[in-house]
Design goal:
The complex is a heterodimer of chains A (112) and B (116). Chain A is built from no helices and 11 strands. In chain A, 0% of the residues lie in helices and 54% in strands. By secondary structure, chain A is mainly β. In chain A, strand 7 and strand 8 form a beta hairpin. Chain B is built from no helices and 11 strands. In chain B, strands 2, 4, 5, 6, 9, 10 and 11 form a 7-stranded mixed β-sheet that branches. A 4-stranded antiparallel β-sheet of chain B has the order 1-3-8-7, with no helix packed on it. In chain B, strand 5 and strand 6 form a beta hairpin. Classes of the chains: A mainly beta (112), B mainly beta (116). Chains A and B meet through strand 4, strand 5 and strand 9 of A and strand 5, strand 9 and strand 10 of B.
Chain lengths: 112, 116
Amino acid sequence: DQQVKQNSPSLSVQEGRISILNCDYTNSMFDYFLWYKKYPAEGPTFLISISSIKDKNEDGRFTVFLNKSAKHLSLHIVPSQPGDSAVYFCAASSNSGYALNFGKGTSLLVTP
Amino acid sequence: DGGITQSPKYLFRKEGQNVTLSCEQNLNHDAMYWYRQDPGQGLRLIYYSQIVNDFQKGDIAEGYSVSREKKESFPLTVTSAQKNPTAFYLCASSIDPGTGRIDGYTFGSGTRLTVV
């Protein structure tokens, strides 16, 4: 059963605009969330994370927002650049868990 | 530089044959993981190991086997019992066993396995 859900398989955004990638989770025990970026035929790379004690974490052009009551998080990329085109995975963990739970990913295309 | 190395990058296997995918890390990480990626399926956990000489089944362990004889190495064998082995396989490691809560996982570059 998918505990981390990324309901948008793909997203297309113009260069310079904001990209918003969404993620929902069902397990209320999750308290740490991460975003990974993946290019084709490569392993995912860590992008940004957030603990459940926060509702926002910012790193340069990337900001993650967490809404615990809605069990929802989002990744904002501002401004979007063509090099941001990749698959983005949302992941979650709990203190009692044994591994990260990943969503199915959202493929972002940033067009010039 | 520290990192995690998967080999080979591409692998072809005949039906009915076992094949072993290599994963080596020099990050001194305790925990290691194997994930499988299929189109539209995201990353699914096959096996994980939190410490040397110990490993546990993940969500889709059937048809796979692993060993963890050394901290640096976590090879995955895809056996003939795996019904649909064609996929992209990713190995990962983390500092803290189990959850990667400190700074997440470090992933290898993956192995593309194709059954012919």
